[in-house]
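Lab meeting minutes (informal)
Scribe: AK
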Amino acid sequence: MRVVIVGAGVVGMTTAWRLAQDGHQVTVLERHQGPGEETSFANGGQLSYSYVAPLAGPGVMGKVPGWLLRRDSPMRFRPVADPAQWRWLAAFMRACNAGTSEATTRKLLRLGFYSRDQLQAFVAQHEHEDSGFGFDFARRGKLVVHRDEAAFASACRLLDYQASLGCEQQALDRDACVALEPALAGIRDEIAGAIYTPSEEVGDCHRFCVSLARLLQPGSRRTGVSLRFGTVVQGLGQQGGRVTGVRTDAGEVPADVVVVAGGIGSVPLLRPLGVRPMLWPLKGYSITVPLASGARAPHVSVTDFANKIVYARIGNTLRVAGMADLVRGGTRIDPERVGTLVAQTRALFDGIVPDLPLAQLQPWAGLRPATPDGLPLIGPSRVSGLWLNLGHGALGFTLAMGSAGLLADRLAGRRPALDAADFDAARA
């Protein structure tokens, strides 16, 4: 089957990989000159399978006013005269209840664990047999650090529930926390406790995309994939109510099936077909701190619960990421937001952020395509020949391999490993 995939981020590239394994003739279209150049480029780096609870939770609405009043808030909201934003917000607020949040968490945990299994099998297959393969993948575990006693107590109460869903976690007091991660010694007296999840992993998402491209390139053992970088998608071709291909600046690319995996940029592409996925960009920021030899940087991944900032050791760097800004517009760097990341990193890990110009800390911003309830759209749309793999929010890297596997199984007519209805793309 001729399959055209729009988008070469981590979701598009993993989809290409899985479909190529099934023998499809796959073409990937991407406007950038290489894979993973947008939202996948410098994300948080944490493969956080046990922390997939949606942003729309039962306590979120009560926190929003306080967040909006803080200049260094983990969330910002800028209203615009766009009905799509208000529809998204209304649906988000409807999802902010315990029942919906718990149901969504269960579904995302199943997808996350499936994705973890798929990624680990992929790495085991290729890390030794393919020269040049690598993306600083490591199983480092994750510490979610609490400085508020009430918040830590609340997290501890969830441990049995998380365990019932398959999560391996334990509560640590401040001494055990610092013993596990000595880089936190500078804030020992501020720590109320931490939740430790040993199974969590890290990796460089951009390098993962590049490694996939290398494995799929012509001349490799994986045939049937054409990677067309530097190609601008202009629209989707239709005939008789069916999508028949993709129009590009280099001509039309015919297809039996088109998979749209272009993140937030997919919204205007799909609109002429009457497909309107409820996506809104959550703008996030990161810095990448070069680590000097002997730097007392964390080896375990760390999440600062109160400030919603994540820290991941990736090779000889520390990736620091956070923020969820519900704003319209592009990826312009807001110096104040990046400054918050720098200041929080210096406060948490004394002495590891060198006194460098900000540009040398590689400030970055990306637009994470989020659905209101946190569930991605995976599978066939309401339009024949059009499939979607969209809406993973901040969990694109974590959920990519599982999402690709789910889509590939459905396209092949196999029984999926998960309940496909949980991520029904016909919702769009």
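Next up, CB showed the second protein from the same session:
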Amino acid sequence: MTLGLSFCARHDTLGVMSPAETHPGVNFLDLADQTIAYRESGPSGGGPPLLLLHGGAVDSRMWGPQLDAFPGRRVIAPDARGQGGSSDAEAPYRLVDDVIALMDALQIDVAVPIGISMGGGTAVDLALEFPARVAALVVSGTGTSQPEFTDPWALQAFADWREAEQGTDPEAWIAVLQRFTAGPHRTRGQVDPAVWALIDTMARDTLAQHLRLDPDGRPLPPVPPTPVADPWGRLGEIAAPVLALSGALDGDDHRGMGARLVRSVSGPARHVEVPGAAHYPNLEAPELFDAAVQELVDAL
């Protein structure tokens, strides 16, 4: 699930905050062409570090329950370009290359990428483009960085999202994003209010900090990430262990892509559905999510 911030919105209605206010406790890594914001916990030397890769429209705060959930393990959660505290893209780029740049700067040779939605696609891209840097991977809410949708519920949601992007009301855009928080089988009232509020806050901060306007007040389209070529057709190249974790209440396409990923890779893989959760099982069922991840990394 990716996004483009291409509609015009008044920043004063979104509650603009400085990066320091919005992202306390975040580290900033200045590279030649960007600044990467990231959160970090745990010691070095306890096995391959875990790289927590967030979904579209949100940021590394979505990994709050996981940052301290793996004692003895180094855990790093970066913000993708154009989200959270990281800088906006000024030229063509690939999300997978940004992650490798962070790993190199932090002297991480091999890691376990764990990604949800957009971040899950980046985790798969890492295993395809840099297999020697990936010990295992965990993917949730997608199958590759080029998701495919056929479910009418998802198709309608994305159509409404595109329409909202062309309008002037960011509330409509956020409302569509929150459909994925609930999934097709629940209403807002059936979702943990704390989870709903966190997604809302992150989405508003994304708009407030990264929606750019020209001198005439017109929106400037963001530079989109360059896709990795043919990820679905290349899944057989992945020999590292794969764990696909799907929220049982997520949409059919999101769950189905996780199952397809597991069927297509050449290495050991399994698909686990997390009950009581939709698109963000790490937030709605952190104990189950973390236990499945722990089992995977313990076996490495």
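CB comment: The longest strand covers residues 35-41.
No objections, moving on.
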